[in-house]
């Protein structure tokens, strides 16, 4: 029964604050206490959505499948030249896969700034980086160049472009894992990924310093 006087005291204090015109500061203080439940609920990070994470894996798989099939067909084709039908097939498959991979994160996942033609200007204003969008754009450019070379049957151009496509795939994979909301790796010996937020680089193992030559 001791709660009643306390409740009355709180009501009296609130009424006094309203009369003195200090209700604003009084109400603003609510939630300042770190133990306040409302503040704790809003500041706690949202739990990851398992289905959103699974969808990211599906998108990654789609890109890997489309790119690997293109590379296989180009390298096996006589003179590295693909038929118009094959070019159309791969173009459509790659477009579908890369568009799915470039979609904004699902609700509840870490959001990033979409890359546009004004991306450089946005970064000048200290906007967060979007490595995944950059990786998708670079991979799209690389596969477009490979498709062009395969259309013409340009063996030299194909040979020069294949490593670029492979590097683009690796960049896409790392960017997707590092900033795509997937679980961080737990296996010992692997580099640590950023805990949160896009635009942060994973901690790679430090390269040991080379011994100095005698007399240097």
Would you kindly provide a written description of the structure presented here, covering whatever features stand out?
- This protein is an all-alpha fold.
- The protein starts with a helix and ends in a 37-residue tail after the last helix.
- It has helices at 3-20, 23-28, 37-43, 50-76, 84-101, 119-124, 131-152, 155-179.
- Helices cover 60% and strands 0% of the residues.
- The protein is elongated, with a radius of gyration of 27 Å.
- The protein has a domain at 50-103 and 117-179: Four Helix Bundle (Hemerythrin (Met), subunit A) (Up-down Bundle).
- It has eight helices and no strands.
Helix content: 55-70%
| Total helical elements | 8
Structural class: mainly alpha
Name of the CATH architecture of the domain at 50-103 and 117-179: Up-down Bundle
